[in-house]
Amino acid sequence: MTTYNEAEDSVDSSEPVELYEFTVFGVLRRFTSADRDITYQGHVWIHHESLARNDIEDTGRTDQAFINVTAREDFEISALYDPYPTDVPVGLRIIRLQLGADTDQARTTWVGLVASVSWPSIGFSQLRCEHFLSAFNRPGLRRKVQKNCQHLLYGPDCKADPAPHTTTITVSSVVGRTIYSPDLAALPAGWGNGGTLLWEFPVGRPFFRGTWNHVGDHFDVTYPVPGLVPGSVVTIRRGCNHSYTITGTGSGATEGGDCKTVFNNTPNYGGFQLFQGKNIFDPAEPLL
Question: Is the domain defined by 163-237 classed in CATH 2.40.30.20?
Answer without folding.
Answer: yes
